[in-house]
Amino acid sequence: MKPIPFTRRAFTKGLALTPLGLASSSTAFSESHAPAAHEQLTTAQPLRRVPKTAAEYNRHPPIREADPFAEPLTFNFRRATPRLRPFALNEITLAAGPLQHARDWNRGYMLRLSNDRLLHNFRLTAGLPSKAEPLGGWEAPSAELRGHFVGHYLSACALLYATTKDSEIKIRADGLVAGIAECQTALNANGYVSAFPAELFVRLDKREKVWAPFYTLHKIMAGLLDMKQFGDNEQALVILLQLAAWVDAWTALRTEEHMQDILETEYGGMSEVLYSLSGLTGDPRWATAGDRFVKKAFFTPLAKRQDELKGLHCNTHMPQVVGAARRYELSSDHRFADVSEFFFETVAGARTYAAGGSGNTEGWLTNANRLALEMTPSSHHQECCCAYNMMKLARHLYQWSGDTRLIDYYERNLLNHRLGAIAPGTGLTTYFLSMSPGAWKTTCTEDQTFWCCTGTALEEYSKLNDSIYFHDEEAIYVNLYAASRLHWQERDIALEQETQFPDSDRTKLTVRATTSKPWSLKLRIPSWTTNENVVTLNDRKFEVSGAPGSYFTITRIWHPGDRVELTMPMRLTVEPLHDDPSQLAFLYGPLVLAGQLGEAPSDFDLRHHQGPEIQEAPPIRVPTLSARGRPAETLLEPIPGHTLAFQARDQSEPISLIPLNRSWGRFAVYWTVT
After folding, report:
1. What confidence tens digit (pLDDT) does each residue in 213-260 have?
2. What's the total number of domains in the chain?
3. Same domain, 559 and 492
4. Residue 42 has what DSSP assignment?
5. Which helix H or strand E contains 672, and what residues bound it?
6. 582: containing domain
7. Is residue 55 assigned to a domain?
8. Are 244 and 125 contained in the same domain?
9. SS (H, E, C) 46-108
10. Could you say which of 293, 323, 357 is where a domain stops?
């Protein structure tokens, strides 16, 4: 079976032809120390139908598809059973490697911010004194989005504490929660608490100009929810329940028509946090409140498998789809699964750049499969919040299906976009990851920006261990290749993964503890590797390789010290833009390569620019590559003596390329190839 590589066109075609969860698999059964294997391939086939004539079709009246969200929503608990489950954050420990480094840089930035400064606007709004120096940017006392970053900060603290049991982070987070509780008590406003006054909601109700109060409230509520779930803080739930009651009361007083009108102005993930609160407490009240934030004009086309995303703001609609996924998980209402699955399919398949991100100037500016056109108006591509939310959505869908293509997507985004968006050492992060030739990365400041992407980055780098491994009742799924340790507490199974990936194409998994009963180890064979991948057990090679885009399964009675090694050959490939095939991106395995074009501008004012402004930078020439009739993937060759470094061969001038996630000067990802 020919593997389906992760490209936008192949991803869409693959999802159309193969139901989720029916991707191919390779299975090896071993009941002793010596491997004995056979390969089993299964793939769904499209039904073959005899074409009908127009006359035969015209015998029947046309079917009119009903509006799936025409009626008022009613919520009932009927939890869907996932195919796979994540491990608890404290069951996976990162070891030295790219993920641990990013986490530690992020922690350093978190500790450079003081609680008093973070609470300053909450205290002023509650009428409490504060002598703290105000933060700037989107957290300034005059910014209507103030408080959003504090919610992200709480989530990041909770996730990092759950992962590492970091006592310093725990003390910080508990102090913030206590400070917010003090403000809620001082306000005495039916549970309302925020860093801005409730007057913003009066303006929202009147449809006057206002900057997203519910968007910000979602971040604060999500931070409190995470502090309860992951931060072992009961006070956070007390605050959250009172605040959710205020939201419930506010929305219940509006008609559905008026709420739908409000949702044309106000966006964000309110539905997600209310559904999650309902799932935590078992109280349907909060899910019913969450249903009031379902933007039907957005969901209805998606449920009908229609891409009408042109003109919409990416980052404020993506959380609504994550909310739809959560709604499906709690209610088994397949309308919400349809919304989630088609949205992911169309964005990942038709609106995603090679690095994994989507959008330009925060929006979808064109119809699907028009990225070459969409790239041109601005150099502000791939808002980092979008990568964060799409990875979050992919993780939900993966738990429903176990489809390896979702992990291919997740890995592509993680390695190229997320690990490429945090500055080594400082932990400062980017807003946009531009694909414009000659672009560079711009990062936030220490305390004068606080973009939305600064907040989502804080969360992202606090939970980098969360998707390396999954499990079902009998198997461990190894999805990402990162130095780490796993302790499946329920089964008392422990694994250690040692790898230098992606600098090396090999990984080794050693069983450190196990039960006496057989269980399965499922190794993801990435779609980007070749059929020459190799799996060994205790230094003995299996007779078959894994099918790229599948899992290689070893089922046996395991013993402490058993070693499984996987070699995944990496190869050079190219990905063209759908609407301009002459524009190509080069990849090595899952890594997007970036041509090096000199140093980035050093005098760029980040307080007024969230991303690179190509037109304001010194002009730079980006060479055109000449293929001379050869396959484009043969244009590059490794630079001897350098890891993950390449050069263009037989060109009029020297061109060197390294992974995008290591590029901090001016670079080019897409090249004109003639």
Report:
1. 999 999 999 999 999 999 999 999 999 999 999 999 999 999 999 999
2. 3
3. yes
4. -
5. strand 670-672
6. 572-672
7. no
8. yes
9. CCCCCCCCHHHHHCCCCCCCCCCCCCCCCCCCCCCCCCCEECCHHHEEECCCHHHHHHHHHHH
10. 293
